[in-house]
Every structure is written in structure tokens, then in C-alpha cells.
């Protein structure tokens, strides 16, 4: 490794270390954050250039989805998270829809705006919902502009192939960064006859490589590669010059992304082969709900001393006396 590469890695590691300091738990009950609260320390912002530098230095890029203020804060609380994605998967995991195609532009903007309020150092990207970029180029650009302006996101993600190349070029020319998405396209799961691995034949693999290069040439700064054979994920990564973020694309892409609820164990639906549970928050939530309900039912919550307010005894006696006179 060259001296410049070593220096780049050192700087990236140093930046990550700085990002990790200063996190402080803050208990609240419908209480806004106080002005001047420094519980989340300002850290070096991840940019598109940062991702390019990480790719060149062979430092893996980590991306995780978020859907609201708390999950946005959680992604920002860890220095190792480089990109926060407001994924259209929120349609299923947050809103209870059957598929991502039911999510509206207004709903995406609402959630992305909340995530943005909790985001500090990660690059913030959001999916353009199904139908928001499938009409005219002008309508698609206007919808993307609205997402950036109203949600304060930094880039949009588009699923698609050759048919979105012109749009990618148009958006990037207008100053809106685009993350492409190839392979399995969840917004088109019906036309794909389900959520199936893509690129398993010579023809489909060649077509995906061609599409990847076209999207790069159109100006995409990065590319999600979903549900493809690991060998193809590696080939695409080695034959484009922009960072690739894999999800079910093997270990050789430039980075990885998972849906929050898959990674944290709060999604009870289908578990794809590529998903690894890194926590079991669903069990913790169920235990918490049961403990709370039991404490209320048996009268142990709230505790009259530790969890209740009081009033001066003499003052309360005067209050009772005053009430008796009414």
C-alpha cells in the first residue's frame, strides 16, 4: 500500500473515532430537545467524495436504512455508519403496506424529513417512490427537487435500468446526486414474478453489466446491487468506477446495506437469505410492553416515592381547607 493510501486510511479511521465520542442518553417524556444540547457531537460529514475515497482505499462503506427521527439518530450515533438511506421499504415495515409500490411521494417526504432532523454525519439518501419518476422527465425532476427541498436529503435513489439513464443524466445535470439501483428491483417485484435472484444467466448478467455502465456514464455517484450472484456482484464492482453497495450481492462490493428492521430483528415477515440479525429488538420490545402492563395492573407503577411528585404538606392542608369552604 502506498503512503498516500495509508494516510487516507488513517484519516478515515481518525474521522470515525471522532464521530463516536460524546453520545449521551437523554430521557424524555414529550419534551423537546433543549437549545444548546451538545449530547451529539458534531463530526466530519460524509460526502460523495468521502465514499469515492473509501472505495479507492478499499475501506468498506456501511449503509443502513432509517425511517424516522429515532432511527435517524441511531444511525448518526455510530461513527461507522457512512450512509443513511430512507428506504421505500418503510411502506411495509412502518406503514403496513403489502409492497413498496403503495408508498406515496408525500409519505416519503414526511418520513425523510423526520430522518433528516436526526441525521448528523452520514450522507442522507432517499428512495424516490414508485410512480414519482415514471412519467415525464419534467415531472420526475420536479418530484426529485421537491424531495431535496422539503426533506433536506442530499441524494435520491432510483431503481431501474436503461429506461432511467436519461433521467439520471437530467438530475445530475441539475445538481441532484443520484444513487442507482440494479439487480432485483423491489418496486417491480410483480413483473419479476416475485423477489428472485437476478443475473443468473449469461444474457441477464451481460445486460446488468451494460446497464451498470450506462448508469455510471449518466452520472450516478454510487450504485446499489441487489440479489445477484456474488461473482456478478464482484464483476460489476470491478468494472465500474463508482462505489457499489451490495444487498445480497456477496462480500466483494464496496459496501453493504440492510433494512433496519431486518438487521435489528423487528421485522417478522419473510427473512431473505442475505439477511443477518444483528440484534433482537422485537423480543426486547415485547418484554418491555409486558413488564409495563404488569406493573400498571399490579399497582407497582408508578412508585409513590421514586416516580411521583409531591407538595408541601402544609400547603396541601391549606388547599383542602380552601376546597372545603367552596
Automatic annotation (TrEMBL):
<comment type="function">
    <text>Catalyzes the reversible reaction in which hydroxymethyl group from 5,10-methylenetetrahydrofolate is transferred onto alpha-ketoisovalerate to form ketopantoate.</text>
</comment>
<dbReference type="GO" id="GO:0015940">
    <property type="term" value="P:pantothenate biosynthetic process"/>
</dbReference>
<comment type="pathway">
    <text>Cofactor biosynthesis; (R)-pantothenate biosynthesis; (R)-pantoate from 3-methyl-2-oxobutanoate: step 1/2.</text>
</comment>
<dbReference type="GO" id="GO:0005739">
    <property type="term" value="C:mitochondrion"/>
</dbReference>
<dbReference type="InterPro" id="IPR003700">
    <property type="entry name" value="Pantoate_hydroxy_MeTrfase"/>
</dbReference>
<dbReference type="InterPro" id="IPR015813">
    <property type="entry name" value="Pyrv/PenolPyrv_kinase-like_dom"/>
</dbReference>
<protein>
    <recommendedName>
        <fullName>3-methyl-2-oxobutanoate hydroxymethyltransferase</fullName>
        <ecNumber>2.1.2.11</ecNumber>
    </recommendedName>
</protein>
<dbReference type="InterPro" id="IPR040442">
    <property type="entry name" value="Pyrv_kinase-like_dom_sf"/>
</dbReference>
<dbReference type="GO" id="GO:0000287">
    <property type="term" value="F:magnesium ion binding"/>
</dbReference>
<keyword id="KW-0566">Pantothenate biosynthesis</keyword>
<keyword id="KW-0808">Transferase</keyword>
<dbReference type="GO" id="GO:0003864">
    <property type="term" value="F:3-methyl-2-oxobutanoate hydroxymethyltransferase activity"/>
</dbReference>
<comment type="similarity">
    <text>Belongs to the PanB family.</text>
</comment>
<dbReference type="Pfam" id="PF02548">
    <property type="entry name" value="Pantoate_transf"/>
</dbReference>
